[in-house]
Specification:
There is one protein chain. By secondary structure, the chain is mainly beta. The chain has one domain. It contains 2 helices and 13 strands. Strands 1, 2, 4, 11 and 13 form a 5-stranded antiparallel β-sheet that branches. Strand 8 and strand 9 form a beta hairpin. It starts with 5 loop residues before the first helix and ends with a strand.
């Protein structure tokens, strides 16, 4: 559907001044998961500005779109980024080198987050979707091709070997598609909520960063 012509898809002339302009642009939002403390994360509730930059969200208003804009949601993706600092989010490195550094817990953290939680999509007073978190892979992610160096180096009068540890994982499978699509009208409250039956203590012991991306078409005056 992503490659379909917008004029055909919505059966309207988008160049007609009486019609809204349509652009393919995702709505996205990122929040921090506090290890061992979070039961629920509600996305798209805080607009860009202040403590949230465009690396965190592109929401123009808190929890809704402004007058003159409409969004048609076609896909939903989740992004999991394990952390390396308790109490706040600092990214976890999925690749570590040298034996002195601890192995990453990237894959274990991702699995701990997705194997028991569920997601809900609500627009206005209507709930459009309830499904397990594992059903929402992303279309993009890090690609890792690791190599191991066996060159011996001297350290503290002992010879050690350079090593590379790789522990990266993301959900696999087809990106979730809304069929039919979900319309989000202007000035209508909406949210995507992630829920867990109990707070998850991540294997790394650190906080994580989770993002929700709604793919689709934004219509605007």
């Amino acid at each position: 559907m992503a490659g379909n012509n917008l004029n055909t898809l919505y059966r309207k002339r988008l160049v007609d001044p009486r019609m809204k302009e349509g652009i393919r642009e995702p709505l996205y939002d990122f929040l921090t998961y506090d290890s061992a403390a979070t039961l629920q994360l509600k996305f798209f509730q805080t607009q860009v500005g202040g403590t949230k930059t465009k690396s965190d969200t592109n929401m123009p208003l808190n929890g809704q779109l402004p007058a003159g804009q409409k969004f048609v949601a076609q896909t939903l993706e989740l992004h999991f980024m394990p952390g390396s600092n308790a109490g706040s989010y600092v990214r976890q490195a999925p690749v570590q080198s040298a034996t002195a550094l601890a192995a990453p817990n990237f894959a274990n953290d991702v699995w701990a987050l997705v194997n028991q939680g569920w997601l809900e999509v609500t627009v206005g007073t209507k709930q459009y979707l309830t499904a397990p978190l594992i059903a929402f892979p992303s279309s993009s992610g890090l690609v890792v091709q690791a190599a191991i160096g066996l060159e011996a180096v001297a350290a503290a009068a002992a010879a050690i070997e350079n090593q590379i540890t790789v522990d990266y994982a993301r959900l696999g499978g087809r990106v979730f598609q809304f069929t039919p699509e979900v319309p989000i009208e202007p000035q209508t409250n909406f949210d995507v909520t992630l829920n867990w039956p109990a707070a998850v203590t991540l294997p790394s012991g650190f906080d994580a960063r989770i993002g929700v991306s709604l793919g689709g078409v934004r219509f605007r005056n």
